[in-house]
Amino acid sequence: MTTKKKLDKQSQVTENYLLALYNLREERVPASSTRLAEYIRAFPESEGVGTTLPSVLGMLKRMQKEGLVSSTPTRDFVLSQKGVVLAEDVVRRHRLAECMVVSLLGVKLERAHLEAHSLEHAISDDLQSDIEKKLKNPKVSPYGRPIPGTGAKLNPNTVTLDQVKLGEPYLVDRIPETDQELLSFLVNQRILPGTTIVVVEAALYQGVVTITVGDKPLVIGSQVASRIWVRSKV
Asked: Which of 7, 43, 81, 201 has the fewest Cβ atoms nearer than 10 Å?
C-alpha cells in the first residue's frame, strides 16, 4: 500500500492534527496537549475538530496507536517518520490551496488560510498537478512558509523580530496565518514576506518595539514582534 493510499484513509480530523503538529514543529514550539488544543481552536468550526483537552488527548492517543505520533518524557507530542510523510502531504495541499485562492481567486490574505482548510481535503493528485502548473510551481505559501515537496526549506538563519539587532535591515521571512486579528493588522501595515523592516528601539521591559516599515515608523507589541520571522538583509 502506498503512502498516498494510507493518507486517503485518514479522517479530516486526523489531517488537521497532522497539519497543526507540523506547523508547531516548524515554528519550534513544543506540542504539548494544551498547546495543541490552543492552536486548533483557530481552525474553522466547519472542520469539526474538538478543542477540549479530553478531545485532544483522545485524538493523540488514537494517533499514537496508528504510529503517527509519539510522546516525549516532557509529555510533548512529536510526529513519527510516518507522521511526517503524511503531514507533508496535507501541508502541501493546504499551502497550494492558499496560493490558489490568493493568486487565482483574489481572496484577501486574511481569509486565505481559512478558505484553504475547506479545500485541502478535496484536492486530488491530478488537481494538485493542475494547480501547480497554473501557478508555475510555487515554492512558498502567501505567508512565506515553504511548500513541502518543492525543495523549499525554512531558512535556518531566521529569527523573530524581537531578537534582532537594532538599526539593521531585515526582510520579513514569514508571518503567522492562524490569528485573524493579528494577520489583518500585519496586512494593513504592509508587514508581509519580503518587506524590509528596521528595529529602531526595543523596550521589551515595556512590551513594545519601535520599527520602520519602509519610511513609516510603527510601534508594535513585543508579543507581536515575537511572531514575525525575519532574516538579515545584509
From this structure: 81
